[in-house]
């Protein structure tokens, strides 16, 4: 029995030795695989970090660009509002001119924009009451026209409308200023925002 015991011990020792070799080889293999995956993970981590940083930079640039656009739009809106207010103030100032100056301006408008010998003029209510008949007489004499004052008044700040049959020429302050706005807008902007 001793022999069998020795044989079994030898087989066990041999088996243990083989198991230890397989375990050592497996452990070495595991370590190599872990090292390989660790290197790959490090490379992938670097690539992900690089992409994330690039994306973050692009998002930041878009945000800065958007903020710049919004800032410019806000400034342009404010400038546009200031320009509009300036032209509104100009129309108001024209409407508050003394009667003699208004008469002179209206008379010149009638002479410049009437194309026939018979015209009817429409004024706003305040101007009509203040000097409507006087204007019709003065413009008629100055330009050799038959000028009639319309019984209806207009709802505008100042100026007048010249009617010649079916044709109307709008010479209200609002329209005259709006016509000149395109020509003078850049000059006014230069004065306001220099």
Automatic annotation (TrEMBL):
Transmembrane segments: none annotated. SUPFAM superfamilies: V-type ATPase subunit E-like (SSF160527). Pfam families: vATP-synt_E. Keywords: Ion transport, Transport. It comes from the Bacteria. GO terms for cellular component: proton-transporting two-sector ATPase complex, catalytic domain. GO terms for molecular function: proton-transporting ATPase activity, rotational mechanism. Belongs to the V-ATPase E subunit family. This is V-type ATP synthase subunit E family protein. It comes from Hominibacterium faecale.
């Amino acid at each position: 029995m001793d022999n069998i015991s020795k044989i079994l011990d030898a087989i066990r020792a041999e088996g243990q030795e083989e198991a230890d070799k397989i375990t050592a080889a497996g452990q070495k293999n595991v370590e190599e695989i872990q090292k390989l995956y660790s290197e790959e993970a490090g490379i992938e981590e670097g690539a992900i970090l690089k992409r994330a940083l690039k994306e973050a930079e692009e998002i930041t640039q878009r945000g800065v660009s958007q903020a710049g656009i919004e800032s410019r739009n806000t400034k342009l809106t404010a400038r546009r509002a200031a320009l509009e207010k300036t032209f509104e103030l100009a129309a108001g100032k024209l409407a508050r001119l003394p009667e003699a100056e208004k008469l002179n301006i209206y008379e010149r408008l009638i002479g410049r924009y009437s194309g026939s010998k018979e015209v009817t003029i429409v004024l706003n209510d305040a101007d009509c009451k203040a000097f409507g008949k006087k204007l019709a007489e003065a413009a008629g004499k100055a330009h050799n026209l038959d000028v009639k004052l319309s019984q209806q008044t207009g709802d505008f700040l100042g100026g007048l409308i010249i009617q010649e049959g079916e044709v109307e020429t709008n010479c209200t302050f609002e329209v005259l200023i709006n016509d000149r706005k395109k020509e003078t807008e850049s000059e006014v902007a230069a004065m306001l925002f220099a």
